[in-house]
Design brief:
heterodimer, A: alpha/beta, six-stranded mixed β-sheet, 5 helices, globular, B: alpha/beta, five-stranded mixed β-sheet, about 20% helix
């Protein structure tokens, strides 16, 4: 975790994983806490739901106290849990809401029912780059979707999928999750020029640098079985800070 | 009467997300093309590809049998706006206001079903098409229903999550008794006694020979974890194939 006094707490660090036969959809979910406000930036895929509830509980966060949910965009892996926060106003770009409503023109990342699901909630569509509270401002980053937005928190940026991972930042172009929309590359450049620390939509936070430096490690564990009478197999994948071999593996 | 396995269920869990990859089946009988459950959004393109391999576009599916209204079984319903959706009345009514601690049933699932041609299945077992009977299997969810199908050479039990994986069969205890554990236990017992070929919710189809599981198919998934920003990636495979070659990863 980030040890500075950033108002941002990562609930789920995204990962730019890809697979042959399913979409991992491992997206970033973050909490933004200021003196007056309690906000959630993105809500992940439905597959996060019980784990998200558990992580909030561990942090002592009552979902009913969250006053604002900001949706960077309405893809299946970012907007599926916005309903978990019963008293929150859900902020999204007006172009994104129009996109969510237009279920006929959807791409492969947006279910046709997302607009109807969102319309049950207290929505606040916006345009431009309003300040939500002191030091917290919306930034327009269209391209990945018509109304993609990010959130500037001081000089840190929650970027959503306009800047989905550090590889895209290093390449200066949209390699992971490419978009047909020509404004995607401009939004990537705008994101990089706006902040010193970026929380990508599908990666760990990094310092823009140069050089680009990740702020956190990650680890993910997958359990499955092939023999129903046998034990679980467990795979652990991660990126871990260098440690001395003297104490490993006992630590 | 033909049952095709479109996607085998995957008995996997992660500490970061739920897989939710459930068994998706295609039943063709009596002039009907029936999709058994629709899966989570993340396998949408795989489902479309699997249908295509059988020569079908989504529009070729005219009927959907929806066992229960958990997220990982309903998220692709919108691919089939013209299909008749058969789903238990108990599930449909419950979904108007799911229990606050029921994270399996999306509170907006009725929005997913809105404007669809929904036919509600009563709380009683019946033959819905010749040789296709419903099986009441509550417990994993409030009113889950499966199917028993006489294929000619087997009596197939399409149990969905009442039989989460083959492990439920070897242990005799339901692994994911989500809603009502006592009912889930009797439903598991009932499903295992209802036939000789089993399609679990989150595992491959299997037969039981003297209590030993004999799987009928394999599965294989590949994952690529990039270690950025330099661009190297780490390949990882999950497979039941013994001869999986490492070079392909």
């Amino acid at each position: 975790m980030n040890t500075t006094s950033s108002p941002i707490t990562v609930l789920f660090a995204g990962l730019p994983v890809s697979s042959d036969n399913f979409l991992p959809g491992i997206s970033t979910v973050a909490l933004v806490q200021t003196n007056a406000r309690l906000m959630i930036f993105d809500t992940g895929p439905y597959a996060y739901r019980p784990i998200l509830q558990g992580r909030l509980r561990k942090l002592g966060i009552d979902p009913g106290k969250v006053d604002t949910v900001i949706l960077s965009h309405v893809h299946w892996d970012t907007a599926a849990n916005a309903d978990l926060f019963p008293n929150a106003t859900v902020v999204l770009h007006e172009k994104e809401l129009a996109y969510a409503d237009a279920s006929d023109s959807h791409d492969d990342e947006t279910p046709a029912y997302v607009g109807r699901a969102l319309r049950r909630l207290k929505l606040k569509p916006l345009s431009g780059e309003p300040e939500l509270c002191s030091g917290v401002r919306v930034i327009e980053l269209p391209g990945h979707t018509p109304g993609s937005i990010g959130l500037m928190v001081g000089n840190e940026l929650l970027a959503g999928d306009a800047l989905s991972c550090a590889m895209n930042a290093a390449a200066g172009e949209v390699r992971y999750l490419p978009s047909k929309n020509s404004s995607a590359c401009g939004s990537l450049q705008k994101a990089l020029a706006s902040a010193s620390v970026i929380y990508p939509g599908h990666d760990r936070p990094f310092r823009v640098g140069p050089p680009i430096t990740y702020l956190e490690d990650y680890a993910i564990r997958i359990r499955f079985f092939t023999d129903p009478t046998g034990p679980d197999e467990e795979i652990r994948v991660g990126s871990f800070a260098a440690k001395s071999f003297a104490s490993w593996p006992t630590d | 009467m033909k049952i095709d396995l479109l996607i085998p269920g995957l008995p996997a869990k992660a500490d970061h997300f739920l897989f939710g990859i459930c068994s998706l089946l295609l039943i063709r009988t009596a002039g009907r093309t029936i999709l058994f459950d629709t899966g989570p959004f993340r396998i949408r393109q795989t489902l479309i590809r699997a249908l295509k391999e059988l020569g079908l576009a989504p529009a070729g599916v005219d009927t959907i049998f929806l066992t229960h209204l958990h997220w990982d079984h309903v998220e692709n319903l919108d691919l089939f706006p013209h299909a008749e959706v058969l789903t238990p009345r108990t599930e449909f009514e419950y979904a108007a206001a799911p229990r606050p601690n029921d994270w399996g049933t999306p509170p907006y699932v009725r929005e997913i079903l809105r404007d669809m041609h929904v036919t509600l299945l009563p709380d009683q077992e019946q033959e819905i098409f010749p040789g296709v009977k419903t099986l009441l299997l509550p417990g994993h969810s409030v009113g889950l229903q499966g199917l028993v199908i006489d294929t000619g050479d087997a009596c197939a039990v399409l149990a969905s999550d009442a039989l989460w994986s083959a492990r439920d069969a070897t242990r005799g205890v339901p692994d994911v008794a989500f809603f009502d554990p006592a009912k889930a236990q009797s439903s598991l017992d009932k499903a295992l006694a209802a036939g000789d070929l089993f399609y679990p919710g989150h595992d491959r189809p299997f037969r039981l020979k003297n209590g030993v599981v004999q799987y009928l198919t394999q599965y294989r998934y590949e994952l690529s974890f990039p270690f950025q920003p330099l661009g190297q990636s780490f390949g990882l495979g999950i497979s039941t194939e013994r001869n999986m070659s490492v070079e392909n990863l």
